[in-house]
Design brief:
472 residues, alpha+beta, 18 strands
Amino acid sequence: MGSQTDPPPHITGLKHLRVLGSGGYSTVHLYEQQVPRREIAVKVMRGPSSDLFQSEAELMARVSSHPAILSLFGAGVTEDGFAYIVMEYCPPPQLWTVARRKPLSIADALRTIIQISGAVETAHRAGIIHRDIKPANILLTAYRRPVLADFGISSVAGDANQATRGLSVPWAPPEQLIDVANPHPSADVYSLAATCYSLLTGRSPFGAVGQKDDIFQLSRKIISDPVPPLQRPDAPEALKRVLEVAMDKSPMQRYPSALAFGRALQEIESSLNLPPTTIDLLQDSLDGPDDAGDDDDSGTRIAVFSRVTTPTQASPAAADEDDDVEETDEEAPKRSLIVPSLIGAAAIAAAVAGGYLVWSTPGEERPPGSFATIQADQAAPLKETAPGPQGLAGESAEDGTVHFTWSAPAADWAGEYQYRQWRGASPTWETTTDTAAVLPAGQTCIEVVAVRDDRQASDPVHVCAATPAPTP
């Protein structure tokens, strides 16, 4: 099993058709299952069977019934001792190939990421952190529905081998590049947002346009640079703000869950008058035994989300599904791998703002659940915007800089402010807890947004300061 030219393994009941792709850990083959007759993807590990490969299958089994997660059909070991996983086959072209050729529309990108956010939230509630969310790991089924794949480096509690796993740098959060040994759900929130950014632009957020990325320079950008502006004139400001919050350098400043991020995107859909996209979750039954025969469809609506604030922990499994392997379609992206310890640890660690928490481990088995649907009209992270800054005004100083001041939205305000030059060439947002900001000489207009501690943002407030008339 060292290369794609190796003979395919014999698996009873399956007929080999062709190799789909190959990577460092495994080879993925296309087989035809005889009974029932259908095409399936079979991932075969390179080398003898291992606990890590079995762990990947077990992780997938926990959540693969979710409509936005790749279906798992089975697993086993060949006569030659090679472990394999049998999965749903997703025919080309795949999502990342499509988006690299032509970025997705706002509507298509929102619809895709909202559905995947439900898959990620469901995995988190099952105690799994994916740790490798990126465009190439979102496949399209035969019905062109997006599904999350590649649980090969996912995390569950107690795996001592996390630090040796590879990861995909372009979509990895800063803290994952520095310390991979303590994964947290907020890492997946970052990667979800980075994936959304990529679907809208056809490139990774910090990638150089038209150039091959140097993995170490890319890592430094992710850790220290602000999120580059989303160069989409049709993208609303609200979408840009949501992506910036979800990709904050500090894990604790991001949306608190994949569900919260998905709900924010639902509200953007609503503001654009787009058809609503629902979020499917694996929810523990809210009904007692006496309600088992109740056909009232209101039971499919989730009224509370208490489990979102009490996540369970996770730790890594083995190789991967699709992005550990090189796609055979043209323009298929190759996996960018890096071992975080290779980065200059001390210098890079100093660039990260804030820390992150260790996800606590549950002590009991989770009861079986059933899928419930969150309708878009149940979400309200952006519909009722936070109050904005009051009394924004600016005054030019003798040195040419412009000093702006404002008042808090309310006496009991708790939060921060984001500001940037308005109508200028520098769209980068700055963050402050003060009610004042200074723009360099020549920048006379400012845009300020108030962001409450619950991450709910106000509408932007603008003002331009009068500049002194030139002296004759």
